[in-house]
What does this fold into?
Amino acid sequence: MRLIGTVTPDLPLLVVAVEEESAHLGGRFPVLLTGMGKINATAALATVLARGDRPSEIVNLGTAGALRSGWAGTHQVSRVLQHDLDSRVLNLLTGRTFGGPIELGPEQGPVLATGDLFVSDPEARDRLAQSADLVDMEGYALAIVAQRAGVPIRLVKHVSDEAGEGAARTWRESVDGCAKILADWVHTRL
It folds into this structure.
C-alpha cells in the first residue's frame, strides 16, 4: 500500500491496484496504490478511511478483462459481484447472504465480476460471462469498503484484454496504453 498525496474532503481519492495503472495520473488528486487482489485492496482502503481521511468520493481506476468478444474501451461499472465466493452455499448454511452483488448507481453500465483469480482460462471466462461483462481483482472489495464507510465510489475500468488464453501477455503489453486512457478520463471527467 502506498498513498501519494493527501486525502481531503474536497477531492476524490483515486484508487489503483498497481503503479503501472497510475503512471500517467499526475499529481492533481491523491492516489492510493493498493496492490493486487481483494485482500490488498480491502486492507489499503480500510486503513486510509480508518485514519479519518475522507475524500469527496473514491474513484477506482483500473484495467479489466472482457468476458465476451467485442468489449473494448473505458466503462463505468453499474454493478459488481464476487465470482470466487459461493454466496449461494453460504446462504444455505447460515440463512444469510454474504457477498451479494452491489449496485453502484442508476446509470446503465457493465457488470464487473471481481475475484482473486487472474482469468486466463477459457472455461472460467465462459462461466463468468453468464453473469458479468468484465472481470478484475479489486473492484468488489473497494466497493464494499466504501459502502460500509459511507463514501461514494465509482469503478472505472478500461478493457486491457479478453480474459482467457494469452490474457497475462496482453495485459503486460497494453497496461501503459490503458493507463494513459484512464488518466485522460480523470483529466476530462473530474
